[in-house]
Description:
Number of strands: 2
CATH architecture of the largest domain: Orthogonal Bundle
InterPro entries: Rbsml_uS13_C, Ribosomal_uS13, Ribosomal_uS13-like_H2TH, Ribosomal_uS13_bac-type, Ribosomal_uS13_CS
Keywords: Ribonucleoprotein, Ribosomal protein, RNA-binding, rRNA-binding, tRNA-binding
Oligomer: single chain
Family: Belongs to the universal ribosomal protein uS13 family.
Mean pLDDT: 89
CATH topology of the largest domain: Helicase, Ruva Protein, domain 3
GO molecular function, one term: rRNA binding
Protein name: Small ribosomal subunit protein uS13
CATH class of the largest domain: Mainly Alpha
Amino acid sequence: MRIAGVNLPLNKHAVIALTHVYGIGRVSAENILQRAGIAPDRKISELNDEEAHAIREIIAESYKVEGQARGEQQLAVKRLMDIGCYRGLRHRRSLPVRGQRTSTNARTRKGKRKTVAGKKKAAKK
């Protein structure tokens, strides 16, 4: 079954399968299923066309998903960089934004280590 351009895994419960859509987390998935009147523990393969259509309509009218959500996220980060605030500068330099230490760790954000030449040892006479 496709929802918002994403193929949902048929063998998973509906509440878990919906989280495969970018912009829908566990709580949002539970709310969508509650509004559609579908039990969260039903598998996606068990849903009929009417139930699938109800889920699609709820998502379309109430949630920003996939490309729209990604675009908004990128615009929010770009705005921070454009106004030149501290968080924007951290984004621009690819450093941690939320106050983590960078002397050690922060490897995920900084990327692979860049080797720096050490001091040469003095030659013995």
